[in-house]
Design goal:
Its main location: membrane. The protein is built from 6 helices and no strands. Helices cover about 80% and strands about 0% of the residues. The longest helix is centred in the middle third of the chain and has 34 residues. It is extended.
Amino acid sequence: MGRCGLHACLSYKAWSAKPSTEQQAESISRARIFFTAILVSLSNPKVILVNMMLLPVYISADKPLATQAVTILCTGAFISFSVYASYAFFASKFITRLKSKAANSVVASIYASAAGALAMVNR
């Protein structure tokens, strides 16, 4: 299935999906969500490649490696925590709006538009 078909399929699924409920969200443990997110983040090949390209630029051979590694690790952790905390904050503010049929319709329209654009480009 091409990219156009994939977007059309996702559009249909989003359009026909029922809004999620509290019971669905509570059926998954927080620990499982946390460890799944960690696994996805650590196995992301783009992040691994970016780190392999950028870290050598900031590491100096004439300074202690442990100090530099701890500094880079703490800086990266702080930035990641700040970004994901802001995502969580804004998601908690908009959660009721995101669990509606209207939100599913908006997502379905975006996927349908993407499918249409890909169909036009791939002609």
